[in-house]
Amino acid sequence: MIKEIADRSPLVHCITSPVAINDCANVVLAIGAKPFMAEHPKEVADITAGAQALTVSLANVTDARMASIMISGSEAHDKNIPHIIDLVGVTCSKLRMNLAKEYIKKYKPSVIKGNVSEIKAVAGVDFSSIGVDAGKADAVSDNDESAKSFMAELTRNYAKITGAIVEATGAVDIISDSDRTVFVKNGSSNMPYITGTGCMLTCITGAYMSVLPPFEAAVNAAAMFGICGERADGVIKRDDIMSGLGSYHVKLLDEVSKITSLDVDKYKNIEICSL
To answer: Do 202 and 84 contact (CB within 8 A), yes or no?
Structure first.
């Protein structure tokens, strides 16, 4: 467990997709926080008011969940509770895009998170996506300095406009608060093949925000979860046909439950953008 989080055992209110809700709750528990997955519009204000952080995801919207997202966002804004919005699917749904823009404008989230295509879309830049996934044309790799520079500038500018930490996730995560921009390079190519890893990171970031300022929370959460993904790779062996993504899924949670702050400090792979 992460000692700072485990010592405080903060309550994290997570409004997320039913596809990922179990995994999201488990990763929050695994690092020492307490998840509350409430989403009924008539109770979420009370739940958010008692939480130390709020996470909202657009991964699976319904009328009730949309109402709850806005109610909880208002509560978090009014009570200065750190909150993160995950822009899942804004590239392929006007409903989600409009919801995201309204949430960001009204409630000024601490962190705005999405894959590269989603961040481009909400910032009003041309994008390439496939469903809820970023398109190949938008991918940012560590050896593509041009793409890294472009996304660093975009996240920096959008952070300045919104006042939020902006996090564009992918093989390289780009995180900016307008003054500081970093590339987080930890992670595994297997992680995108497990449904809900993006939602898991959102909820982990919420737990980190209960003990750290939003920029440091986003950077450390991305590095920590990426390291866990790298460590879980060991369960998949080329000569072992019995090991595959199911085993990787379980191993990923194992690694989240075992990692320490010292591990994160030792193994995080972060590049500071000098632009």
So the answer is: yes
Handedness of CA 180, 196, 203, 72 (dihedral sign): positive
One-letter identity of residue 132? V
Give the integer Cα–Cα distance in Å for 88 and 8: 30
β strands within the chain, DSSP E:
11-15, 34-36, 53-57, 83-86, 111-115, 129-130, 133-134, 165-169, 173-176, 181-184, 270-272
Is the torsion defined by CA of 191, 194, 195, 200 positive or negative?
Answer: negative
CATH code for the domain of 7: 3.40.1190.20
CA 175 – CA 63 distance, rounded (Å): 31
pLDDT one-digit tens code per residue, 152-182: 999 999 999 999 999 999 999 999 999 999 9
Number of domains in the chain: 1
Residue 114 sits in which domain range?
Answer: 3-272
Range name among 12-21, 26-35, 125-134, 214-223 with the lowest pLDDT average: 125-134
Q: Which residue has the tokens 């595959």?
A: 244
Query: DSSP readout, 25-44?
Result: HHHHHHTT-EEE----TTTH
CB neighbours (10 Å) of residue 241?
Answer: 7
In 3D space, the residue among 20, 18, 85, 40 whose CA is nearest the CA of residue 58 turns out to be: 85
Q: What is the pLDDT of residues 32-64, one digit of tens each?
A: 999 999 999 999 999 999 999 999 999 999 999
Angstrom distance (rounded) from CA 151 to CA 110: 19
Structure tokens at 175: 């995180």
